Amino acid sequence: MICIAIANQKGGVGKTTTAINVGTALAATGKRVLLLDLDPQGNCSTGLGIGRADRERSTYDLLIGETNLEDVFVPTRVPGLDIVPATVDLSGAEIELIEFEARTHRLATTIERSAQRWDVVLMDCPPSLGLLTINAMVASDALLVPLQCEFFALEGLSQLLNTVERIRGRFNPGLSILGVVLTMYDRRNRLTDQVADDVRAVLGKVVFDTVIPRNVRLSEAPSHGLPALIYDYRCAGSEAYIALAREVIDRLPKLKKAA
Fold it and tell me: Residue 114: what pLDDT?
């Protein structure tokens, strides 16, 4: 399995939308994909139509209990795409994890015990750099960073990259940056182009060629419990995520070789 954490400590940058739609696109290519919802808000679970009644076991159980991935995943309506949902219990997990000696490796240990049922595991991280996100980074082969095209984007990114370096140094030397994807791109806004140019000037080829536009259909899809790729596969947002998934697939062999 290749494990990818989708993270940014800033909220509202498109982490959950990216997790759902990249996961859907990868599943459409025949890959077996598992989403781990690590955000206590549970938006990834809701966006895939997983109701509260269907969340008897969750990522909280993975982190606090001795549960295996195979015991807690829920199939979604997307063929080949499964999810371990999140519940509000996860909001207290960071406090409870402090009691554990190996609190940064709880998720990594669980994944290592799994039966390799899936090809790709995508982790939708909360908008913070707390223990939940750190667990995801320690357990991952790579990081995918959604970055909103706004003025303070690079400032927040530098903090995230500093955290990645600390994770590499202390816990997970193999953690790499799969790529940075520019989200909420608006060609009518001159600042958007300036931010995109600045990010590419600083990070170069780490930034994906694909940019995700601001798109009403991307915003509507979660309320129907569907990925945008199924809700309206012809919309600009869906087309962008299909293109992004192609780039992700192109970069996966490098992760396998590193592993």
Answer: 85
Written in H, E and C, the secondary structure of the chain is CEEEEECCCCCCCCHHHHHHHHHHHHHHCCCCEEEEECCCCCHHHHHCCCCHHHCCCCHHHHHHCCCCHHHHCEECCCCCEEEECCCHHHHHHHHHHCCCCCHHHHHHHHHHCCCCCCCEEEEECCCCCCHHHHHHHHHCCEEEEEEECCCCHHHHHHHHHHHHHHHHHHCCCCCEEEEEEEEEECCCCHHHHHHHHHHHHHHHHHEEEEEEECCHHHHHHHHHCCCHHHHCCCCHHHHHHHHHHHHHHHHHHHHHHHC
Q: Is 171 exposed, middle or buried (0-12, 13-18, 19+ CB in 10 A)?
A: middle
Whether residue 101 is predicted with pLDDT greater than 70 in this model: the reply is yes
Answer yes or no: is pLDDT of 244 > 90: yes
- Residue 133 in contact with residue 9, Cβ under 8 Å? yes
CB within 8 Å of 131: residues ≥ 6 apart: 93, 94, 97, 98, 103, 104
Residue among 67, 70, 72, 60 at smallest CA distance from 135: 60
Residue 65 confidence (pLDDT) above 70: yes
| Sheet hosting strand 2-6, strand order edge to edge | 74-75, 81-84, 33-37, 120-124, 2-6, 142-148, 176-185, 207-213
Q: What is the pTM of this model?
A: 0.94
Closest CA to 249 of 105, 119, 162: 119
